[in-house]
Recover the amino acids of this structure.
């Protein structure tokens, strides 16, 4: 059929092997998990402006569309790409701020009344540390999410997937510099994506 | 399933009432699939999705999966995505390139022009019986590549696509033509697909030109998400049409558009304050278009629906939508986002960002549409609710039939386009012939003269 493109190991997975599971690794992992739980609280408690503060000014927030492709083409073609074409989200802090402002108008009817949402984060693994574990400034972290949304009366959606983040340490703590959200759906099985992931 | 024939009562356009049954009733829904979606011209995709021989793109027509495919010789086909043997989907990839479609079930294979080629153990099991020609993939009856957009119908008696469009053509053209006025030249830069719990007609009707629902977009208008938003402009689009006269037109074939006519002194209006490169580019496009089209350049598209379920956004966020019926209360939305193929990268990149923040389930504007369609559908399923028809009395009679643009032209916000759409929907549901389905535009004109 089509030319086969060999699946490449993601760079993060290769880096995984390099990080030794030392006490310093687990301390850092606990720190990152704590950060994620805090982030989930902010969104679920509808403290959206505080959530924005966790995002680096130059954040790239990206949710590709997942496509059904032939075996062997996953790496090359399964996901739409950051920086080209259409995805679900491929945006910066300005746009994310607009999304928050919109909810806060109180007349964004798709989130008025507000949905009830719970974010679960799990499977946290640090895949790369820069410059090193002794003085980490920037991390590549993978995790899984399960987001439950209940809206008005009967409307219920479950969003499950992975996140690939780059976190950056600042004076004010960790900030999300880059986030890739891989929702495990092809055709979106929800009428809207009004929450943050 | 009971077959209904009370459509004249359900759809009372004369008095402006339409029964909620047509939006929620399962029998009516089945009948729609039979009577509307097997006959009308439906949008399948765009040639830019299948640029090379052997390229395919899996699409839908109504509630059925189809394959849009460019054969080895370069010709475009549309087939039902179902094996002639036991119906297995012969293609479950969204897009790709192939020389054969191999059915996973018993391995019949089909060529890119739909012909049955390989049948395992043919000689032993089927010799002298199986007629390969008669077992090609089921092809649409007619297909049209209209300025790059691909349309098809299952009805061999359907008129050609241009006739089907009628006077709605020049409005759709503006979604498909280059920004500088050259014909065609668009490409699809991505497709959104999502499922929402509403009847498909809510979406189709919204894009006919339901300008009246503007207040539901107050939240984006308050914060500003348009191409001059960072410069402090509120609103969700641009100011391009601020001096224009708006027109709402119902066409005899059931299509409806909301377009705008710029004043005689057709001057460029700055719309991209956030980016000087874009401002320069779009100003250039504007001047070129004016030079090419002259008077005709004053007509600008806004939105429209080509009967029954294809909608377009003609300027920004530019694209073609297909509202695929899933059930009476569920619809699969597909939007093909368009840019000029030869637009500068900077413009394409800007536009895709704007499209993403505006459109579809992740778009700040259209999320509010979806909320409306869902709860309007949900609150119409009850027995009591169904006894009370929707009100369609807005701007009754406020249109002319002698306008050079053809059709029934209104210069005020109107539900005449919706009334026209459902009037034609009724003709389809009653099994009308193609003369009736086209609404004989000539006689409309004569009546006005
Ligand atoms: S169903 Fe396709 S070969 Fe049998
Ligand atoms: Fe809308």
């Amino acid at each position: 059929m089509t030319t086969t493109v060999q699946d490449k190991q993601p760079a993060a997975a290769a880096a995984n092997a390099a990080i030794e599971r030392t006490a310093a690794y687990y301390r850092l992992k606990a720190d990152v998990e704590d950060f994620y739980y805090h982030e989930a609280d902010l969104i679920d408690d509808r403290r959206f402006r505080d959530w924005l503060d966790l995002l680096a000014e130059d954040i790239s927030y990206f949710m590709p569309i997942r496509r059904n492709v032939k075996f062997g083409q996953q790496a090359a073609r399964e996901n739409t790409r950051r920086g080209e074409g259409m995805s679900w989200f491929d945006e910066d802090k300005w746009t994310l701020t607009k999304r928050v402002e919109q909810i806060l108008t109180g007349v964004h009817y798709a989130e008025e009344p507000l949905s009830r949402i719970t974010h679960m984060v799990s499977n946290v693994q640090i895949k790369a540390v820069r410059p090193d574990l002794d003085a980490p400034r920037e991390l590549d972290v993978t995790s899984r999410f399960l987001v439950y949304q209940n809206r008005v009366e009967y409307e219920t959606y479950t969003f499950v997937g992975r996140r690939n983040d780059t976190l950056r340490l600042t004076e004010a703590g960790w900030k999300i510099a880059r986030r890739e959200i891989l929702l495990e759906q092809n055709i979106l099985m929800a009428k809207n994506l009004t929450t943050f992931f | 399933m009971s077959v209904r024939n009370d459509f004249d009562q359900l759809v009372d356009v004369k008095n402006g009432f339409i029964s909620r049954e047509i939006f929620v009733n399962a029998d009516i829904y089945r009948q729609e699939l039979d009577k509307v979606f097997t006959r009308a011209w439906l949008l399948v995709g765009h040639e830019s999705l299948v640029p090379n021989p052997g390229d395919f793109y899996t699409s839908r027509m109504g509630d059925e999966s189809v394959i849009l495919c460019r054969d080895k010789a370069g010709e475009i086909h549309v087939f039902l995505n179902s094996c002639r043997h036991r119906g297995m989907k012969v293609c479950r990839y969204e897009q790709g390139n192939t020389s054969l479609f191999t059915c996973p079930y018993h391995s019949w294979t089909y060529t890119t022009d739909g012909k049955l080629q390989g049948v395992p153990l043919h000689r032993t099991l089927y010799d002298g019986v199986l007629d390969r020609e008669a077992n090609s993939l089921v092809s649409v009856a007619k297909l049209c590549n209209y300025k790059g957009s691909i349309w098809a119908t299952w009805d061999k008696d359907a008129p050609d696509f241009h006739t089907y469009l009628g006077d709605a053509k020049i409005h759709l053209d503006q979604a498909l033509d280059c920004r500088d006025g050259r014909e065609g030249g668009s490409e699809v830069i991505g497709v959104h697909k999502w499922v929402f719990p509403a009847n498909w007609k809510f979406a189709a009707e919204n894009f006919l030109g339901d300008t009246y629902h503007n207040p539901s977009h107050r939240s984006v208008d308050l914060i500003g998400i348009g191409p001059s938003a960072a410069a402090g402009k509120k609103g969700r689009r641009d100011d391009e049409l601020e001096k224009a006269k708006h027109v709402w037109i119902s066409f005899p074939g059931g299509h409806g558009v909301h377009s705008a006519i710029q004043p005689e002194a057709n001057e460029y209006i700055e719309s991209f304050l956030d980016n000087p490169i874009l401002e320069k580019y779009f100003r250039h496009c504007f001047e070129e278009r004016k030079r090419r089209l002259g008077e005709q350049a004053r007509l600008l598209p806004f939105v429209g629906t080509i009967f029954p379920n294809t909608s377009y956004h003609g300027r920004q966020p530019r694209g073609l939508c297909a509202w695929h019926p899933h059930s009476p209360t569920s619809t699969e939305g597909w939007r093909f986002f368009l840019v000029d193929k030869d637009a500068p990268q900077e413009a394409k990149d800007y536009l895709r960002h704007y499209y993403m923040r505006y459109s579809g389930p992740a778009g700040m504007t259209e999320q509010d549409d979806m909320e409306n369609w869902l709860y309007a559908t949900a609150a119409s399923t009850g027995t009591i609710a169904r006894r009370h028809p929707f009100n369609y009395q807005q701007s009754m009679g406020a249109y002319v039939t002698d306008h050079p643009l053809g059709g029934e032209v209104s210069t005020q916000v109107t539900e005449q386009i919706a009334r026209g759409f459902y009037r034609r929907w009724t003709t389809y549901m009653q099994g009308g012939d193609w003369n009736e389905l086209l609404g004989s535009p000539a006689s409309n004109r004569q009546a006005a003269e």
Notes: Confidence is low (pLDDT under 50) at residues 441-449 of chain B. Chain B touches chain A through 47 residues (CB under 8 Å). Residues B 83, 85-86, 88, 103, 105-108 surround FE2/S2 (inorganic) cluster (ligand 1) (CB under 6 Å). The radius of gyration of chain B is 23 Å.
